[in-house]
Amino acid sequence: MVRQRLLPARFGVSHQIEGLFHHSHSFGLDFLPGKIAFYGEKSQSSIKYITKQMQQERKSMETFLEKAKASSAIAATLDGRTKSRVLTAMAERLEQATESILRANALDMKAAEENDLGSALKDRLYLDEKRVAAMAESLRQIAALREPVGRVLEGWRNEADLRIEKVSVPIGVIGVIYESRPNVTADVGALCFKSGNVAILKGGKEAEHSNRAIAEVLQSVLAEQGLPREIISLLPDSSREGVATLIRQDRYVDLIVPRGGEALIRYVAENATVPVVKHDKGLCHTYIHAEADPEMAATIAINAKCDRPGVCNAMETLLVDRAIAPEMLPRLYDLFKAAGTQLRADERALEFIEAALASEEDWDTEYLANILAVKVVDGIEEAIAHIRRHGSGHSEAIVTENYSAAERFLDEVDAACVYVNASTRFTDGGAFGFGAEVGISTNKLHARGPMGIDELTTYKYKIYGKGQIR
Predict the structure, then answer these.
(1) What is the domain range of residue 173?
(2) For residue 6, what pLDDT is reported?
(3) For helices 183-194 and 208-224, angle between their N-to-C axes, nearest 10 degrees
(4) Which of 174, 259, 291, 407 is the S-S candidate for 279 at Cβ 3.0 to 4.6 Å?
(5) Which superkingdom, per the lineage (predicted)?
(6) 3-state secondary structure 443-469
(7) What is the pTM of this model?
(8) Is residue 203 located within the same domain as residue 123?
(9) Are residues 226 and 106 part of one domain?
(10) What is the pLDDT of residues 323-361, one digit of tens each?
């Protein structure tokens, strides 16, 4: 048959298209890169139907984005006292709504069980009273942070006697695409609000009920305070087409922060017209130096891998100096075995422990599970070279009592966060004293590492004159 017409494959119409396809033997379609091709006897009438649906959804999305953009002018002018008061009210309301939030989360957890999601993902998804209370406490911590907007970063007078001030200001409308962690909805919404921004949130589909329950709590407080609900809102079209639309709306959206899988982040980076700050994968290493304290090294290694294996700041590869491997590896093997960790080791490490033989792919894998790659290295130079080749620029650690080795590692390892004698698990906005984070940026421009309220601001210059001309 001859194809009749090509339409853009976006604006969330895939479910209508599939319905037409399954209910008509005389209508067909092909999915092409960015297009939908219709053919068959009823193609013209079907095109009209789909076109109408696309126009309606386009209008709905544009209306939503227009409201978000308009709300950013209001959010940007709120004073610090007002923002802190609203955030405190949000924290209280979250605690009051614990029961309804947990009911919503139970629906997500039931679906996770039915879909046989992995244990690490289910741990990220799960909420209980303690975790809801932690969300509320995070909002209180954010409320108590100093005001990030309106700070004079620098000030000087030029040769013309103009007084010039470099002042922090909100970015504007920030879209955040994130994984299946419901607490991110509250954390990111609060951080954007505190920094005078509008937040458009797109969480993982696995947490849809939980995210909606949390967002409704935050929006209800905004409305009660006489503020637009659109200051913190979920993306109305949560489909892939909705995300594809959002990341191209540079007329309305000022920044996109994608968190999650490598494929998602690559897609956003390659297709967005909106500026992107990436929360890329966390392929974190811990290097146990020849002069490490064995007890400290064991404690740090177990914490870095086993505390929460499914998060981005968990260790994925352990590098052990050849000089300390005979003592260190058997000790670590017993500890990891007790913790249920699956080990994948290189040939030199297999001389001391029982494990699966690591492949080249293992050195580049973010497991997000209780799996660990183990490699024996010939000194700090090889350890640094391995990290340069395989690291993601997230978090790297060395355990050593040698000051020179520590300083060399700090200077030569190129990552957002580099540790000496501490677990990579500390790469976190809360642990850094930010209250929470929007993401952990592996970019080098604008923001790097945990993104708190300061990283959600930009700056402008205010210039005061007395009639000067040039």
Answers:
(1) 78-279+451-461
(2) 43
(3) 30
(4) 259
(5) Bacteria
(6) CCCCCCEECCCHHHEEEEEEEECCCCC
(7) 0.79
(8) yes
(9) yes
(10) 999 999 999 999 999 999 999 999 999 999 999 999 999
- Give the percent of the chain with pLDDT over 70: 88
Cα separation, 314 vs 309, whole angstroms:
6
For residue 33, the model assigns a pLDDT of: 41
Residues 222 and 291 in one domain: no
Q: What is the pLDDT of residue 444?
A: 82
Reduced to 3 states (helix: H, G, I; strand: E, B; else coil), residue 379 is coil
Q: Residue 58's pLDDT is what?
A: 66
Whether residue 23 sits in one domain with residue 119? no
User: For 134-177, what is each residue's pLDDT tens digit?
Assistant: 999 999 999 999 999 999 999 999 999 999 999 999 999 999 99
- The structural domain count of the chain equals 3
Q: Tell me, what's the pLDDT at 26? A: 35
Give the neighbor-by-neighbor strand order of the sheet with 27-32.
5-8, 35-40, 27-32
Contact 266, 276 (CB under 8 A): no
In Å, what is the CA distance from 196 to each residue of 271, 433, 454?
27, 19, 11
Residue by residue, what is the 3-state secondary structure of 334-355?
Answer: HHHHHCCCEEEECCCHHHCCCC
Assigned domain for 385 exists: yes
What stretch of H or E contains 128? Answer: none
| Helix, strand, coil percentages in the chain from 3-state DSSP, rounded to 5 | 45, 20, 35
**Hey, what are 246's tokens?**
């959002």
What is the residue whose two structure tokens read 């968190």?
259
Contact 271, 244 (CB under 8 A): yes
**Residue the block writes with tokens 């997230």:** 394
Q: Residue for token digits 């001389």?
A: 351
